Amino acid sequence: MVEAVLIDLFSLPANLQNNIQVLLCNVLESIEKCFSIPAPFVYVICCQRQESERNGEQEPLLPALRDFQCLKKRVEVVRALTTAAALYTIKQNLDEKDLSIIKVILPTLRKDLMKVYIDHLFTAVYQFEFEDLQVASTCENIQVAEPQSEEQAVSAEDVALIRSEIQTYLESLPSLKGELNILRSSLIPDDIFLHGFTTRSGGISYIPTLSSCNLFSSSKRRDPQVVVKENLRRLANAAGFNPETFYRVKTDHANAVCVMGKTEPDSYDGIVTNQKGVTIAAPGADCIPVLFADPVRKACGAAHSGWKGTLLGVSMATVNAMVSEYGCNMKDILVVLGPSVGPCCYKLPHESAKEFHRIDPKCVRLFDSPNPFIDIRRATRILLESGGILPENIQDDSVTDQNQNVTFCTACHPEKFYSHFRDGTNFGTQIGFISIKD
Description:
By secondary structure, this protein is of the alpha/beta class. The protein has two domains: 4-50 and 60-135 and 157-171, Rossmann fold; 178-436, CNF1/YfiH-like putative cysteine hydrolases. Helix content is 31%, strand content 19%. It is built from 13 helices and 18 strands. The strands form four sheets. A six-stranded mixed β-sheet has the order 9-10-13-12-14-17. A five-stranded parallel β-sheet has the order 3-2-1-4-5, with helices on one face. Strands 6-7-18-11-8 form a five-stranded mixed β-sheet, with no helix packed on it. Helix 4 (111-121) crosses helix 6 (156-172). The longest helix has 19 residues, at 17-35. The relative contact order is 0.10. InterPro entries: Cu_polyphenol_OxRdtase, Cu_polyphenol_OxRdtase_sf, Cytotoxic_necrot_fac-like_cat. It is found in: Cytoplasm; Endoplasmic reticulum; Nucleus; Peroxisome.
């Protein structure tokens, strides 16, 4: 069932306002006849011309919106200087109302271009169907998309222009939830390494559970890659690294490690490098983003350690890669555990809890309950120390620093961090990042 209808009048010239009004009346009348109650939300996008705005020339559209009873209060005209701005405004409305099935009625010549905009600004959460803009006199014309004519490929130049338009618009948006805030560890020497852990402030993601500096896009979430890319650009600008040489682990909740410069695995939860100016990162939204630094050999690493990765030893796998690839001495490697869900909040089924209990009974609280509390940080520290990392070279502020420098509980601090455990499936993601300074 179509939940929203988008009528694209953006490309029609201003001198056709009267024709637009007649056309819009016919389209709205067909929508009303077909959908009755509950009516879909209808968005009409038009080009905002500054001269027309000053002269009040937008008024001829208004009578077309007045007399449709089932669509009352569900029709909105969105005027913008660019298609990107109009679509992003509509996307915010769709997200606020949790709508995802959209019919787009538009001129045939706009269809392929519109699909490029949609591919960039939306994710697979949304479903789109397209219909040619014409006088639709029957319900069938609204309910069933007409047969598509043979599509003409959009030129590479047009795609580049659309990408540039979207990027320019996103860069113009104000940051939400205040300025970017980057947490840094005093254990990692800042004369050799650039590093940090992000919080949720300072980006442009607006969906509540993703707001505002979300740094991961997924086909299952509503934040598109272009928004995450803009958040990353702002982070890179604030932190001082090059976003073009930024590499994030391809999480699999396992223990594979990627060595920069060698063949990249299809998926991996650890990454290491000794290349200057290359920034590597691991995500975390309850899972631990773990950073590794060897100031002697000047090598570094990052790992994503959830409960599965912790049990599989992803942190020691990352350490071992630094030792084997760069000749690091185990006793020189510094390890920092970033913001992650604490034992105060995190529960697992009893069968999984048994594995942590085998590492150390103190890793589990209320062991006899069906869903005991789990301390994945303690388990990570124990496995690292067993592997040869010095206890004093591991920073876990939940143990060593009551002022909580970097190792906060993500679930306990909704104003600071994203949390899958707390927010559900449409959750945002923060990262831990590190690079070797030039």
